[in-house]
Write a structure and sequence with these properties.
Blueprint (H helix, E strand, L loop, with lengths): L1 H18 L6 E6 L2 E7 L2 H4 L6 H13 L8 E6 L3 H10 L3 E6 L24 E4 L3 H22 L1
Parallel strand pairs: 3-4, 4-5
Antiparallel strand pairs: 1-2, 1-3
Helix pairs in contact: 1-5, 3-4
Length: about 160
């Protein structure tokens, strides 16, 4: 399936982020089954609080299109987007968001907030979630377990 292909690409990017010591999140922007932009989490390494995987993928896609609006594009991401990233999806006019794992604390799509459901917004993003959620969740759990284990060894 097309969705699985692109989510696997996003998961590869999440593993890349993990290799850099970043929270393992990866994202790709696709239009007509062509990759427009990709990103993996980078706030720590870039010293940039906005360097989320989704933001980096959207920036790259906008440069490729020479347009900040992407009304027919799909964004695939391994974890439910936060409020900042949800806002960027609206401003970019992304048609469809496909995400894997929910994020109970900071997820702004179905978990702690439902930003995209605001009736006052002038753009609606179609949302599909749960695709390859277990694989993404395992990656996140192992990353944070490793971080906790390193902290406890330092004590």
């Amino acid at each position: 399936m097309q969705h699985e292909f692109w989510m696997r690409k996003a998961l590869e990017l999440a593993r890349t982020a993990q290799g850099y010591g970043e929270v393992p999140v990866g994202a790709v922007v696709v239009l007509d089954n062509q990759l427009l932009g990709e990103g993996c989490n980078g706030p720590i390494g870039r010293t940039d609080p906005t360097a989320h995987a989704e933001m980096l993928a959207l920036r790259q896609a906008a440069r490729a299109l020479k347009n900040y609006r992407m009304p027919d594009a799909t964004l695939y991401v391994t974890v439910e987007p936060c409020t900042m990233c949800a806002g960027a999806l609206i401003h970019a006019r992304i048609k469809t968001l496909v995400f894997a794992a929910t994020e109970p604390r900071a997820g702004a799509i179905v978990s702690s907030a439902q930003v995209l459901d605001n009736p006052k917004l002038n753009h609606k993003v179609q949302v599909l979630h749960g695709l390859m959620a277990e694989e993404s969740s395992v990656l996140l759990r192992s990353f944070f377990a490793s971080k906790r284990a390193k902290r406890s060894r330092k004590v």
